[in-house]
Backbone:
């Protein structure tokens, strides 16, 4: 099953965040709760974790990108 | 009462050692929701570079920093360049926001409030500036804030400038990437000199409890061997 990972709600009034680090890239396996990317907003760095075990099939972001809350980060092919 | 707050006072400590303790607390918080930690310390001189830093915000060259025995560290917190030294109190709140409010802005505003309450105990009026996180006395900044989150557990935190003899080091950087003047408690309050580090930690801890847990929280003092 393909899982879409989105930028989560970060708090009231925070609509955008900048990608400051990418931990995992397409083709790589990822464990549930492992960090996918780091984003920065309002003087806070925030790691977005993987929601499942699997393999990243497609990334939609690059370092330096500004993302909106709810925007797609990547897709993960879930493994069980 | 809700949860447990583990209180860790590291005293004067190298930055890297405090980072290790922070990461231990982070792992513990992820495994035990409802358990938070707060680490107090003073650092030996170090410049830290957050995720938004620019190399040009360090004004001194490598040789000067080496001669002054000031290390530079790239860190996983938000914000730009910051200086830490023995004249500051640095606080690392490792709080699980999943048990509180999952809101970055809420957390940072509470950190600012903790420092404002702390400063008010010394008769110092302070304010926050919209769009410029930190705590300000007039046009000068007295507290810098930069945090990170892993699964809604916070790490890194804030530094409050206390002693005036350590302020010259700020000329080596553009704090938070801005051309600003920094303030310290000793310059702002004649009452500050009467308090030692331990006394200030006690006031600061109480400020954190009052702001984050107004109904109280059980505390546990933890000793760490570094």
Residues:
């Amino acid at each position: 099953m393909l899982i879409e990972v989105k930028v989560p709600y970060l708090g009231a009034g925070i609509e955008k965040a900048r990608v400051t680090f990418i931990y995992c890239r397409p083709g790589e396996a990822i464990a549930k709760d492992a960090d996918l990317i780091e984003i920065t907003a309002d003087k806070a760095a925030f790691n977005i974790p993987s929601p499942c075990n699997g393999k990243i099939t497609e990334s939609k972001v690059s370092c330096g990108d500004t993302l909106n809350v709810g925007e797609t980060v990547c897709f993960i092919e879930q493994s069980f | 009462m809700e949860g447990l707050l583990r209180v860790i006072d590291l005293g004067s400590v190298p930055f890297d050692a405090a980072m290790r303790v922070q990461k231990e607390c982070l792992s513990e918080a992820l495994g035990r929701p409802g358990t938070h930690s707060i680490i107090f310390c003073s650092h030996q001189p170090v410049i830290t570079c957050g995720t938004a830093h620019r190399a040009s915000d360090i004004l001194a060259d490598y040789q000067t920093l080496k001669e002054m025995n000031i290390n530079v560290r790239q860190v996983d917190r938000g914000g730009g360049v910051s200086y830490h030294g023995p004249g500051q109190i640095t606080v690392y709140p490792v709080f699980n926001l999943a048990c509180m409010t999952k809101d970055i802005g809420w957390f940072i505003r509470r950190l600012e409030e903790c420092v404002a309450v702390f400063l008010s105990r010394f008769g110092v009026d302070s304010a926050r500036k919209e769009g410029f996180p930190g705590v300000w006395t007039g046009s000068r900044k007295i507290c810098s804030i930069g945090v990170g989150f892993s699964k809604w557990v916070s790490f890194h935190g804030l530094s409050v400038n206390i002693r005036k003899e350590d302020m010259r080091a700020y000329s080596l950087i553009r704090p938070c990437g801005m051309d600003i003047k920094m303030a310290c408690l000793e310059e702002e309050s004649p009452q500050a000199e009467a308090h030692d580090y331990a006394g200030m930690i006690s006031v600061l801890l109480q400020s954190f409890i009052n702001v984050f847990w107004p109904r109280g929280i059980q505390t546990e003092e933890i000793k760490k061997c570094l």
